Structure formats: C-alpha cells, structure tokens
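User:
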Amino acid sequence: MKRVLIIPHHPDFEKIKIRLAELARLLSLHDEVYVLDWHSSLAKHSLSGRLEANVKDLFRPLRVLRRQNLNIVEFPMLHRPLCLVKDFNAFWLKKAGELLKIDVVVNGSYYLFSAPLQRRYKYIID
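Assistant: Predicted structure:
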C-alpha cells in the first residue's frame, strides 16, 4: 500500500469538483491518501481577506484530520510573498513527507510548492 499526498490546485475541494480531489477519493480505496488543505479568500477577495487567509495558514500546526473518508493534512504554509513561498512551503512539505512516510506527492499547485531537493518520495506535478 502506497502513501500518497495530493496537493490540489484549490483548497475548496468539497464544494467544487477538482480533478486531484476526485483522484484522491478513488486512490483512497487502495492506498493511504492524504490531501493538503489550506485557507483561501473565497468570500473576501480584498487585501484583508487575503492577509487573513495567509496568516491563518502561516501559524497552523502540522496535523492530520479525517474528513469525508480522506486524510486531510494541514501544515504551516505561505501564500505570499511569492519570492518566499516555494522555499518555505518546500520545507514544510519535506517535514510532512517524512512524518507521514509519504511515497508519492502529486502537486497540482505549481506556484505554491516546489519539490524539496532532498526527498524520499516521488514528486509529480499535475
């Protein structure tokens, strides 16, 4: 059984049909699947809404929750500034990957994450 971490391109995968979230649901029948969740400023497209979502994610603990037959992973992450996002998020992705013993990461968010240089899992960009 493989341990797969899926990073969808959008966090609202319960209300919107997102390809990687649907793939996660199917894979979870045979493998242990984790889906990354984060905050977004869906209701408020203002600067304050974006700041609020960024701060909420920056100070969240690394944890796994169970929701709708999926393992939901949360860990600290940045949305902005873009010059810091990839390195900061790669650091936490590496920590989560080690803690959860992830075999495969499927990344649908091209600008929020990059593969850590030293990793123990296969990294796929969708």
